[in-house]
Amino acid sequence: MNFNASRSGTTFEQSGEAPSSLSLRNNKSARARWPELRARTFDGSLQNPGQIENLLSRDEQERLQRLATLIEYKRGGTTIYSEGEDAQFLYFVEKGIVRTCRCAENGHRQILAFRGPGDLLGLPDSGRYANSAETAGPSRIYRLPWQRMHQMLASEPHLQQIFLEKVAFDFRQAQARIMVLGQQNIYQRLASFILEFLYHSEYFDSKTSRLKLPVNRFDIADYLGTAPESAARAFARLEAEGLVKRVTSRAVDILDLDGLIEMQRGRRRSHNRTPASVDA
């Protein structure tokens, strides 16, 4: 495992070759954001109804940060925790993308969600992790002991409400994912995936209309519930329709946003295909 972990301005560096060796150095240059929990509130904001926002106050952020260890993962594909392990920690994503996934008995991986800054990972199910979590690229994540977090929740009703709002928000997102996987064809699913990332300014440049994909083609296929070859054909279909243009394997130009939304909603029809030829 290759990561740095910092607490109170100190960095712990551990290498996979020598797990027992541990060195400490000052970490003044590594400025991390406060822990956040981002979601839509139950009642909505009067100024920005429906907006996703950080639910934690500055005081709550400071107290959570004092309890937390900041872990920096240098590369993608690193396991944060595995399905079935004892759930000793909660995780707050500070930077980067984390994929939560589960494997079927035949070994096929299904990516359940991509989690980014402001998201929460690792809530226990009967004391164990229900899914696995892996970095999709370089990431920074706050790790908090579950028992300490549980004690805070038991004594602070306002923090309980924040967690309830966050869990409810994630539950609604999961319901939307069920609709996508159950009701949309592969082209609509890919359009939905692309549109999801357009809301993140760190990946989408609205001036150039270029989207930098933070995940690879295998992640995309496992998220869409299809094979990588089918996902590639779906990209080709969107390009043929004049909706997007692949610049590199990780960069896509958005050519027709309205058309992409129509494709997502199933209102766009190709002139080259009949409905019967659309892949499931």
Our estimate of the beta-strand percent is: 25-35%
- Give the rounded overall mean pLDDT: 85
Helical residues, percent: 25-40%
Q: What Rg, in angstroms, do the CA atoms define?
A: 20 Å
Number of helices: 7
Low-pLDDT sequence parts: 1-29, 271-280
Question: What structural category characterises the helix and strand content?
Answer: alpha+beta
Tell me the total number of β-strands: 17
Order of H and E elements: EEEEEHEEEEEEEEHHHEEHHEEH
Tell the overall outline: globular
Order of neighbouring strands in the sheet with most strands: 3-2-1-6-13-8-11
Main sheet record: 7 strands, antiparallel
Distance between the termini: 39 Å
Give the structure's gist in a few sentences.
With 280 residues, the protein is an alpha+beta fold. The protein has helices at residues 58-67, 146-155, 157-183, 186-197, 217-224, 228-240, 257-265; strands at residues 3-7, 10-14, 23-26, 38-39, 53-54, 69-73, 79-81, 89-95, 98-103, 109-115, 120-121, 132-135, 139-145, 204-205, 210-212, 244-248, 251-254.
